[in-house]
Amino acid sequence: MEQPPTAGEAGARVLVVDDDPTVAEIVTGYLDRAGYVVDRAGDGPDALARAAAHRPDLVVLDLMLPGMDGLEVCRRMRGQGPVPVIMLTARGDEDDRILGLEVGADDYVTKPFSPRELVLRVGSVLRRARPPADAPAGGSGSVPGAGSGVLRAAGLTVDPGARRAVKDGAELALTVREFDLLTFFLAHPGRAFTREELMREVWGWDFGDLSTVTVHVRRLRGKVEDDPARPRLVRTVWGVGYRFDPTTAEGE
């Protein structure tokens, strides 16, 4: 179960981008009462300007914006540096949700949604992105089952405490969930996990759209595999899910 925001997350700055003033007002109100510092924008250019003036810790971003859509806003924001993004969409089409994840969104919520659920998701993503400075090693900001020590395998080095991942000496630009997924895989080499298990262990959800896991695995492969079309590290286990297999990769 997700927990309410702690003091470490509650002081975070959240940028809410939605052209519907009613939705923006409701979301802003709930986040404000949860203790977040909230900024609002009604379109893409305004969102980019506000993000440049005061870099947010997280962005709640509507997909359907006038002029510059949320996908382009997400691309441009992430081009300026890593920032967690939760995408809002009124569309029920799975392709649209997957596209949002493909451009770097860490999570999405489909309208109509529960404002309380959105606040919980904001807290969940922030806990991964920036655990409280006074949290003990392996505390609330750590990936379940990963501990706090540095993990190494197949040319990959992951430091959960520093939120830093390196492949063959080059730092990887990973989203919050991609980092969590890679850390979890390195902490459990050789074991096959279903998508349901990964969603529960990495996302902390007992329910949700399993395509979220599929998309994040695909994105992760694109960053850690030498040939993403022929993955050797993150293997598909047909009829089950995925397995991190560094020994086989190193031996091939």
Automatic annotation (TrEMBL):
<feature type="modified residue" description="4-aspartylphosphate">
    <location>
        <position position="62"/>
    </location>
</feature>
<feature type="DNA-binding region" description="OmpR/PhoB-type">
    <location>
        <begin position="148"/>
        <end position="246"/>
    </location>
</feature>
<keyword id="KW-0902">Two-component regulatory system</keyword>
<feature type="domain" description="Response regulatory">
    <location>
        <begin position="13"/>
        <end position="126"/>
    </location>
</feature>
<keyword id="KW-0238">DNA-binding</keyword>
<dbReference type="GO" id="GO:0005829">
    <property type="term" value="C:cytosol"/>
</dbReference>
<protein>
    <submittedName>
        <fullName>Two-component system response regulator</fullName>
    </submittedName>
</protein>
<keyword id="KW-0805">Transcription regulation</keyword>
<dbReference type="GO" id="GO:0006355">
    <property type="term" value="P:regulation of DNA-templated transcription"/>
</dbReference>
<dbReference type="InterPro" id="IPR001789">
    <property type="entry name" value="Sig_transdc_resp-reg_receiver"/>
</dbReference>
<dbReference type="Pfam" id="PF00486">
    <property type="entry name" value="Trans_reg_C"/>
</dbReference>
<dbReference type="GO" id="GO:0000156">
    <property type="term" value="F:phosphorelay response regulator activity"/>
</dbReference>
<dbReference type="GO" id="GO:0000976">
    <property type="term" value="F:transcription cis-regulatory region binding"/>
</dbReference>
<dbReference type="InterPro" id="IPR011006">
    <property type="entry name" value="CheY-like_superfamily"/>
</dbReference>
<keyword id="KW-0597">Phosphoprotein</keyword>
<dbReference type="InterPro" id="IPR016032">
    <property type="entry name" value="Sig_transdc_resp-reg_C-effctor"/>
</dbReference>
<dbReference type="GO" id="GO:0032993">
    <property type="term" value="C:protein-DNA complex"/>
</dbReference>
<dbReference type="InterPro" id="IPR036388">
    <property type="entry name" value="WH-like_DNA-bd_sf"/>
</dbReference>
<feature type="domain" description="OmpR/PhoB-type">
    <location>
        <begin position="148"/>
        <end position="246"/>
    </location>
</feature>
<keyword id="KW-0804">Transcription</keyword>
<dbReference type="InterPro" id="IPR001867">
    <property type="entry name" value="OmpR/PhoB-type_DNA-bd"/>
</dbReference>
<dbReference type="Pfam" id="PF00072">
    <property type="entry name" value="Response_reg"/>
</dbReference>
<dbReference type="InterPro" id="IPR039420">
    <property type="entry name" value="WalR-like"/>
</dbReference>
